[in-house]
Amino acid sequence: MLKAAGAAAGAVGIATTLAPGSAAAAGPAYAHPGLLHTRADLDRMAAKVKAGAAPYTAGFAKLTANRHAQSGWTPNPQATVFRGSGTPENYATLYNDVHAAYQNALRGHVSGDETHLDTAVAILNAWSAKLTKLDGSADRFLAAGLYGYQFANAAELVRDHGDFELGRFQTMMSDVFAPVSDSFLADHNGAVVTNYWPNWDLAAMACVLATGIFCENKAQVARAVDYFKNGDGMGSLKHAIPVVYDNGLAEWVEAGRDQGHALLGVGLMGTFCEMAWNQGIDLYGYDDSRFLKGAQYVAKWNLGGDVAYTANTRKKGAINGWSGTETATEAAGVDPAMTRPIWAMIANHYTKRRGLSASYVTRIAAKSAPEGGGGDYGPNSGGYDQLGFGTLTFTRERAADTASSPSPAATASGAGADAGTGTGTGSGSAARPQTGGAATASASASPGAGRDLAATGSEDVVGWAAAAGVTAVAGGLLLLRRRDRVRRGGVE
Predict the structure, then answer these.
(1) DSSP string computed for 138-200
(2) What is the pTM of this model?
(3) What phi and psi values does residue 135 have, to the nearest 5 degrees?
(4) For residues 164 and 479, what is the distance between their CA atoms, to the nearest angstrom?
(5) Where would I find the beta strands (DSSP E) of 220-352?
(6) Cys bridge to 476: 18, 285, 337, 424, which one at CB 3.0-4.6 A?
(7) CA-CA distance, 364 to 342, in Å (whole number)?
(8) Which residue intervals of 327-434 are DSSP H helices?
(9) What is the spatial distance between Cα 243 and Cα 433, in angstroms, rounded to a whole number?
(10) CB 444 within 8 A of CB 316
(11) Where are the beta strands (DSSP E) in 312-411?
(12) Are 355 and 454 in contact (CB under 8 A)?
């Protein structure tokens, strides 16, 4: 199991170890479908679209217009997928097929058209029959994390389809994707624990959690949840969000690097929290809703607001190899046209499920609506880092009981209690808030050789009124810039 950091937030450096976790849970442990979307979610989308309700119809229109959501999609599976290096570097084939599977599965559920579900199954079956390895540079860890959690979500939507090779797909996830992500969380590719930015950990965490739920592997889910709370790497909660200020905002460490990667990290942490929530585990509320404070910070910053930034220094390099440090002193500049399809999920959780004020998150969700998905945010890999379509999938009515604990998505024994939390509610209600002043984490802007930025990788009322009509902004494209970054030792 993971060793708890046991130190103040940001005081990283204790080695993180993971024990191999291949033992699957005995008996029905998890609710299905129960990753990003539950049966209730799918039924809500279908009913709202059929009724012509906004903003669901605008979100569904984004889905049906996407070239990946067409039932004529033909998969192109590979035996080995390379990212970062290798011959050929063919990971674009994988992420295009993953998004086609997800989008067809989602479209099939919402529209009732079985041909889209059949297409999703054909894509997933083709890959599980052929893929045996992920390879390349350190970027292979990104491939495992990003496409692993996405693959699991696509498969979860068709797991009961009569033609879906469920067992074979579970084997592929357990043998090809999860071990790579587990390995990264255990030893960070032989680098010092702060060498890699939060999105690397978060992608790996999302894959481990999604695969654990999809394959009903309790030990794997427990490792992922424990890493979120106690992991030594920069993707764990208190390292990604090291400083909570007195104004209720919390510094997102990667704001000291650049805008695109900070958005990626927020989207990945939200994805992690949403998948856990649907199994009865409240990580959204963990540590006095620390993630909300970090998301509010990033939203305000991306809307052009001024945010505080406490200078921090992180160690880089390989264990027993080269080493160095890097310091960030302020939040990077932002482009108001840059966006990712991440905000509807976060805004709807906090304002609709929990009834909390999240003014900046609400405003940016309205600005970004209707959210699209893979293929709508540019042709490079960064446009495929999130599954997207949050306006369709996550818009919800305000919960009748906003103080209730999360519960598994459907009847399932032990879904919350056996997932490494002790109870289904996490420990958010008992957590002590971290108050401002003491910066203890690490971040910085990375100089070095250029690559695609995205290759890695009461105030609520006005915002939701705009979102509900979706007459507000369609949102700008994710601008794929080139940034200077250090690539030694696998820094992304």
Answers:
(1) THHHHHHHHHHHHHHHHHHTTTT-TT--HHHHHHHIIIIIHHHHHHHHHHGGGB-TTSS-HHH
(2) 0.82
(3) -140, 180
(4) 37
(5) 243-244, 250-251, 312-317, 323-328
(6) 337
(7) 10
(8) 343-348, 359-368, 390-393
(9) 10
(10) no
(11) 312-317, 323-328
(12) no
The H or E element containing residue 382 is none
Per-residue pLDDT of the chain in tens (492 residues, 90 and over written 9): 333 333 333 332 223 333 333 334 444 589 999 999 999 999 999 999 999 999 999 999 999 999 999 999 999 999 999 999 888 899 999 999 999 999 999 999 999 999 999 999 999 999 999 999 999 999 999 999 999 999 999 999 999 999 999 999 999 999 999 999 999 999 999 999 999 999 999 999 999 999 999 999 999 999 999 999 999 999 999 999 999 999 999 999 999 999 999 999 999 999 999 999 999 999 999 999 999 999 999 999 999 999 999 998 999 999 989 899 999 999 999 999 999 999 999 999 999 999 999 999 999 999 999 999 999 999 999 999 999 999 999 999 999 999 988 988 753 433 443 443 333 333 333 332 333 332 323 222 222 222 222 222 233 333 333 333 333 333 333 333 322 332 223 334
**Main-chain phi, psi angles of 483, to 5 degrees:** -120, 155
For residue 452, the SS3 value is strand
* Residue linked to tokens 């805004």: 347
Q: Which tokens sit at 284? A: 């959204």
Q: Can you give the length of the chain in residues? A: 492
Which stretch of DSSP H or E encloses residue 282?
A: none
Question: Please, what's the b/e burial string for 168-190 (b: 16 or more CB within 10 A of its CB; e: otherwise)?
Answer: ebbebbbebbbbbbbebbbebbe
CA distance 202 to 77: 26
* φ, ψ of residue 442 in degrees (nearest 5): -130, 135
Distance CA 342, CA 177 (A): 23
Query: Minimal CA–CA distance to 464: which of 342, 306, 357?
Result: 357
Alpha-carbon distance of 272 to 72, in angstroms, equals: 31
